Here is the input.
Amino acid sequence: MKIDRRKLLKGLGGTLALPFLESSCLAGETTPTRFLVAGNPFGMHPDYFFPKDFGTDVPLSPTLKSLDWLKDRLTILSHTDHNMVSGHGREVSFLSGVLPEDALAFPEKNMSVDQVMARHVGVKVRYPVIGAGLDSGIRMSWTSNGVEDAPFTDPQALFDHLFLNLTAEEKAARRNLIEQNGSVLDTVGKQFSGMKSVVSHSDMERLDQFQTSVRELEKNFSNRLNWIKTDKPTFDISNHLNQSEVTIENRYHAIFDMIAYAFETDLTRVANVAFPRDLSYTDVGGVTRSYHGCTHNGKMENVTAELVAIETFQIEQLSRFLKRLDSIKEPNADGSMLDHTIVLFGSGMGYGGTHSNRNLPILVAGGGFKHLGHVDTAVNGASMPLCNLYLTLLQRFGVGRDAFNTSTGTFDLSHA
Amino acid sequence: MHKWCFILTVVLSITRLFGDETLLQTHCSDCHNDEKSKGKFNVATLGSGPTSENYDRWLDSLDLVTSGEMPPEDDSKLSDSERSKLAKYLDKKVRSFAVGSTPKQAPPRRLNNREFANSVRDVLLLEDIGTNLPTANLIGDSLMHGFDTHAETLGFSRFHLEQHLEAVRKIVNATILSGEQPAANHYPIEARDIIQTNLQQSNQKRKTTPRRRVPHFDFLDPKLHAYFANFETAPATGYYKIKIRATGKDRFLYSSDDTGVYHGDPIQLEIRLGDRERIIDLPDEEETVIELKEWVAEGSRLELHHPTDGLRMRSNGNFKFQYAIAGEYLRKNDQETYQERLKQIRNPNYRNSNRGPNAWMHWTGFWQGPRPRLYEAEIEGPLFDSWPPKRQVALIGKDPKVEDAKAILTPIAERAWRRPVRDGELDDIVDLVERRASTTNDIEALKEGIVSILVSPAFILLNTEDVETRDRFASKLSYFLHSTLPDEELRKPVNKGEFNSLSQVTAWLGKQFETDAADEFLTAFPKAWLELDDINFMSPDPEEYPFYHKKNVSDDMIDEVLAFFRNAVQENLPIPEFLSADYSFINADLATIYGVENVPEDSKFRKYTFSDERRGGLTGMGAFLTSTADSLSTSPIHRAIYVMENFLGIHPTPPPPDVVITEPDVRQAKTIKEILDAHTTDASCASCHKAIDPWGYAFENFGPTGAWRDSYTAPSPMPLNEDGVKPGKKKLKKTSLKIPVDASAEFRNGNEYNDITEYRKLLLTAANRDRFVRCFITKLLTYANGVEPDDTDFVAIDNILSRSAEKEYRIVDTIAAVINSPLFREE
Here is the structure.
């Protein structure tokens, strides 16, 4: 049965109030908090992801082995989810708890937690959010407009975006083009107002989206005009991409290194990295099958092994990134950059093999939290809404609010 | 007299109504009451008649009673005549409610990328949007249940807007030229200037193989592309004359079993300029000169390629492994050369002397597989038919002036916006052009106006409410059939009222299908309806089913569906023939999968009649059977859901969130029925699965690629290592354990089948036939409107079904009835 939007709106009447204004007490702050999320579309094989025991100082599970060095500074959450029915397609709610088709019932639609943080950072940095991955996205990052923020899927393009500096001549041409485009938008916006006045009753949603797009792009252009004067930091990723064989691993190294450096130079404070469904992992050790095919392994030992290899690979990439952040001292503050960067790994799907979207594989590292090891978040057998964790992360990030979509409270994770 | 008659009728119909309502109580409320509500249904919710709250329940009741699925055969005493009485009662009630429901308007949505490219092309009067990949930057469209025209996923954001703006600028810049006419150059290209390149997705850098002076260039590895060293990209926009001297080599020398290239397929050369592809059949062993004249945008790459799905049969498909074929060929056919080489191989100083004579690396210099050979080429350009070029004159005139901006831009805006330009609407754009003219020349300033027109909401958004009814209808019709804006030839007659009747629509539609005018529909609609883009969401296991992967058989499977659909439209066949046909359109690759013989050894699709009653029509097609299967096993549930959703228009409710689905274990020696045991023994599962599973069991004889099988082969059980397993290329141990396939099942209405041949007959009962045609109509409406019809549209859809039935359900007549329906016309 289809969900009647209006009914849903009525039913959730209480939550329709505008979200709390995000605190702007960060003005003058010297040490930024950052956020990185890495996600996949098929979840993790639970037998290999979740450690057998709960508590701190428990042996890590096979998939997480590469994080052994960080064992005491991790929180792995069992029994948390968005209460979604089984099947593909719900993983797009990973970072919001809201499916696109139900988005209208929420004041910020299905805006993902990374975008809320990016909005909070705003024009303080050159790029409020950076999305990256290989091959294609996994639709995890959604704007307040209810539209997917597609990631960069080519490391070279990401490099150009983040680090390519223009010559003086190119800068002038770029400035001209931005101004020219600005005039076009201005003209287009006027036509839009005319059109809207004729429209009486139909679904204004789509029309508003257009208008918002024009406004946002105009704002973005003026932000870019401001930044164009400032040179970007220089960076070199050629060691990853100029090899005789460029593997998936090289390319993820390049992506994570670029993001780490973008954090270090404060180009951005929020990033998301996707491990997409259609990527062919055949240069990862022992993998011959498609990622999705491996999730439907029918419990065959050799196919399961390939799936675990892919999942282990994803965690290894994350681990390498965490190590890198941990090796950089946070300027103007105690601790490493990792201590000031909240890192989340997970998926909106529980495990592809069962199509379950319960008990999502969720891991938090860094961020200066007093980490808890492996935690069972269930209360009386009922799993914890994942949005509770997101609320905690938002608060840690400095976004002053007391609810996020389907949250019922916070997750008890204090910081030093 | 009249009065009495009237009263009498009323009295009679009241008793009849009461009588039928009693049937509902007597035969349904035992299982569907306040305490016991099987299938989450309680008769009491129907009340005394349909309301907006319970209408879906009435529709479900009507469907289930009509099809005989409710009340179920095993515990019902409902006679056939009572059943039809009950169905009539439900039908009447359903109709009584629908009277007076007003037609809805399709929601506004963004043009999808396909429509965007076509529309820009037609606004600017071009053959295509250009050779410099102007839309490569666009954010890919997401599909909604297969549909790329669905409003839900065609949202709009600043990212979209910026990419649109960039794409439009690129296209306009490659269309309208200002300044002096650029001089033409002549580029002679010798064989050694032809360079092989490997455009790896990884780093986008060209890997080149420098070549010494050579008499010709042969394409070996089909993954590689070639380009001309002295013409890497077009230096300026304009026409280019391209001449290439080439031939096909050694088409018949190696066996096609070895190469994967059929002897029946001509050797081809593909010349690619951005999205524009020209594929040329080369004569065998006879030099020919290919001549092309193309409009090429500045910066476009010209690339050449050997298009084939073969030359990947050995090992993991990498071309180098195919060299072994050369060695085997020599051993059989040229002993002298073979022995000569053997001597070299066995020389201990030879690097690979330790490898056996069959190893591929010994034979790299001996390849004589089918391949295009190029001798030389010649390019001349940019050339112009006049200055400014005629295409530009057609668009903005020979010497356009900013003073005339309004007159120049009006017809362009009218095409783009698919409606007349309103008073004063161009003022802001003209103003922009005038401001721009103060810093640049008139043509460049006018370009700014065209760019504005093409990023305006009136262009990018479809179905906005401000457009007049007839203009909306013309647009809708055009995007439905052509995926682009309506041209004058369509807008004029629509506005004159020449599309107001079913017969006018039918006549016009027939003409569209006689030419290639409706090609977009003939491809995009079946892809959306049957969710063909998802065919490899879970492809068959590459180790178990190598043929499927090595020959890209999924492409053939999609083409089979498209060929079948196109034929049905061109012949105006009855829609139920999609299920009843004993034929399909297949080529040699599909013949291999389907296990049929007497099919010519080539890639062409031809009509083939199956004599086994198992295949023919949609239910026997690889596209359906593969996309619904897991990689190593098949799922009767996935197939049942597909049949219900896409063929019958039934939407089963998904299992509740707290249901724990056990992970399939293909290692166990169990039949699928044993594995799904809970679906019949656990009452909570059974209440839904009894209605679902029988739709899928019939296909169990078709494996993950759609090939026929009489039994399952179970791999030997291997326990999972609890501490984690090391990945490795451990081959599955095959056992001789064979379990016969049981593809029988019983529906709730008591209909039984033993195998696919009996199942196919059950799909053709009157109730199922109507469901299928209704489902088809629903999918057409979804494609056209960007939103699924809902319950309140039931009667309007039923009316289309009646129009369709009057014409024996013929497909073109049915599509015409859809277009003529208030659900499409929105009035």
Summary: The longest helix of chain A spans residues 168-198.
